[in-house]
Amino acid sequence: AQKITQTQPGMFVQEKEAVTLDCTYDTSDPSYGLFWYKQPSSGEMIFLIYQGSYDQQNATEGRYSLNFQKARKSANLVISASQLGDSAMYFCAMREAGTGNQFYFGTGTSLTVIP
Amino acid sequence: KAGVTQTPRYLIKTRGQQVTLSCSPISGHRSVSWYQQTPGQGLQFLFEYFSETQRNKGNFPGRFSGRQFSNSRSEMNVSTLELGDSALYLCASSSLAGVTTDTQYFGPGTRLTVL
After folding, report:
1. How far apart are alpha carbons A57 and B23 in whole angstroms?
2. Is the omega angle on the peptide bond into residue B25 within 30 degrees of 0, that is, cis?
3. CA distance B54 to B40
4. Which of B5, B3, B6, B10 is nearest to B87 (CA)?
5. What is the 3-state secondary structure (H, E, C) of B32-95?
6. pLDDT (mean) for B54-75
7. Closest Cα of chain B to A104: distance in Å?
């Protein structure tokens, strides 16, 4: 079974609008961390935001917020006020204590911001 | 603080050759992980090193090997190159190993083309 599932291969959003990128995960470990990365066409993976399994509140980092629904095992990334520079691939990732904290990545979502 | 650096950024090799890629982690980081990224397979974990010891290994043939030096710099070697080894090879560093909350920071990648 896939540890991380991203069901949206491609998304479009109008500039200045908000967009939600979906991520579901699969783990029976009570201790895990969820991460989102952005990969522009240059190739470098840029860390965006982190959510721990024991965190009570949703993580926020500037225009990025993580909608963490533990019971549904989802960790959706919300980008507010989209900018042209947000056009990139976005990857959801998880590390769980039980598997040596190895990172597992989803297949990614390609986001295009339309002017 | 300088980020993760990878050299070279681009490589062109022919089948049967071998190649060595280098990664310098963020200063103070002791864990280095390597990933292979291809359009067909996505991001695949190769291995992780911490304090010169391999902690985790992905499902890759023995042609892929790595090592870490006492200064935490890491090298990855691929012997007897195949066409399918053409990919973006990403290195990531984190301060610790085996900690769920620890974030990985990625380098710009080495783009390897095998002809």
Report:
1. 35
2. no
3. 27
4. B10
5. EEEEEEECCCEEEEEEEEECCEEEEECCCCCCEEEEECCCCCEEEEECCCCHHHCEEEEEEEEC
6. 94
7. 8
Residue B97 has pLDDT above 70, yes or no: no
* CB-closest option in A43, A52, A107 to B42: A107
Mean pLDDT of B68-95: 96
Please tell me the predicted confidence (pLDDT) of residue B56. Answer: 86
Label residue A115 exposed, middle or buried (CB < 10 Å: 0-12, 13-18, 19+): exposed
Instruction: Please give the structure tokens belonging to residue B23.
Output: 């990664």
Taking chain A (115 residues) in runs of 10, the rounded mean pLDDT of each run is: 90 97 95 95 93 94 97 97 97 86 90 97
Closest-CA distance, B15 to chain A, in angstroms, reads 24
Residue partners of B48: CB distance under 8 A and separation at least 6: A102, B31, B32, B33, B34, B54, B55, B56, B57, B97
Say which amino acid occupies B8.
Answer: P
The reply to whether residue B101 touches residue A33, judged by beta carbons under 8 angstroms, is yes
Comparing C-alpha atoms, which of B18, B37, B38, B20 is closest to residue B92? Answer: B37
Cβ B100–A107 below 8 Å, yes or no? no
Which position has the token pair 């911490």? B50
Rounded Cα gap, residues A52 and A95, in angstroms: 10
Dihedral (CA of A55, A20, A81, B42) sign:
positive
Count how many Cα atoms sit within 13 Å of the Cα of residue B92 in the half-sphere of its side chain.
29
**Largest separation between any pair of C-alpha atoms in chain B:** 40
